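Entry
Fold in token form

___
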Amino acid sequence: MHLDTAIGANPIPFPTEAQIVGYCLSLVGVAILGFLLIGLMVMDWQTMILPHSFTLGGIAVALFLVCTQALFLGPNEDEVVLTKHHIQLTSPGGVVDRGNLFFTGPESLIFGRIAAVCGAALLLLLIRWLYKAVRHRDGMGLGDVKLLAMIAAFLGFWPAILSLFLGTLAAAVYGVVLLARGRAGATSRLAFGSFLSIGGLVSALFGNRLINMYIALLR
């Protein structure tokens, strides 16, 4: 007799190959992201420079890991159905598709992560443009935009937004402390990339838990 049947419990589903590979790749991704963020945090604090080899290289590595994970997805895993209505596709052969319009698992995983990178970068570019339009000077460099895009490439869009929020909050607190101690003025520059890296580290370790807690508060 099966042990679960004997004790009256539901059998625990064994993880699929895609889930095992995805978990392992997630651990590898977090380790690589942590290495990159710690390096960028130190470099930006000391030199106010975020090297392309770290930010753009990190985006390339993250997308490679996502593509690798997509290779192991099963036929119906992570697919996204866009419509439940029959659609008709005109083609030279007059083919009619009577199924649903959907993204397969690999498509939704890869395109979703690319969309997260583009969305995070465009959001920070918009903030940068608005700041310059109002203050008539640059508020942040393009390196910060690439850094946030790199975090989105590893973690996704909403964890990247959480990183931005935490980094902005930490930078604001640090700026207030400097102003109160007379060690900075209204036009002083801060190494925002360092604070954004700290936000990325927190998001990588606790991001999903913090996001779920926030969603629970809104319900």
